[in-house]
Amino acid sequence: NASDALDKLRYLSVTDPDLLKDGPELDIRIQTDKDNGIITITDSGIGMTRQELVDSLGTIASSGTAKFLKTLKESQEANVDSNLIGQFGVGFYSAFLVSDKVAVSTKSPKSEQQYVWEAEAESNSYTIREETDPEKLIPRGTRLTLYLKRDDKGFAHPERIQKLLKNYSQFVSFPIYTWQEKGFTKEVEVDEDPAEVKTEGDGEPKKEVKKKTKTVVEKYWDWELTNETQPIWLRTPKEVSTEEYNEFYKKTFNEYLDPLASSHFTTEGEVEFRSILYVPATKKEDITDRKTKNIRLYVKRVFISDDFDGELVCLILA
Fold it and tell me: Per the CATH hierarchy, to which homologous superfamily does domain 1-177 belong?
């Protein structure tokens, strides 16, 4: 949904550059509070006005993205990249599967006000209010806050969020940052016990403090880019070098050796898809084994499944 909002802003800003006046950055940022079980997802996309909040979130079946694509089709725009993931109204409500409460704070470049939509999982109603807290104002976009259920608070761990993003959203076209704990080492002085050192002349001992150092780890929090790998299967084969194919293979499948060979092709017909097939450098388990995870399906850059039976493998090899 955040990617949709950014896509929409990028498209509309071509004819209306003022939409980017609050900042040209197009990104997604995810911050977690594991102690309180809270996840915050912020994008700098198109945002929503109060009326759009009502239209998109007022009923579960509504979809701002679907309406946007319909408008594009009706206007018969040529060569428009309509590669949007999808139905905000429908997908948004899945948040209540793990949340007791959900808050959507949003600011549209077409509105001077920022509005907050709030609802609880056990309630049949929602509230919309204007955001007045200066510390919670955003220049543009949407901030989604999930207040997780007690049994689902494990999702609020930074490491788990990062792992989920790398698995499912690694190839989203906009940068996704997560708030991660980092550290660096440094040397600090430590005081040793005073040692007696004899001095010349009077012969009386003189106490001297010896200085020693130790290595400590300084902790801090900062944003970390999570989706660095690019979906090379969307490019034309002649534009991709052997080195890029090999690097993509090693990063995606956690391999350390280059593949023996690769094949990059497009299939068109009733179903259209683009594929890259790799031959590993070392012998693997039987690829027709139903338990293997050697095939990964992505729809519009989002990971869908790697759970396929042998029939699909035989179809591809045929």
Answer: Histidine kinase-like ATPase, C-terminal domain (3.30.565.10)
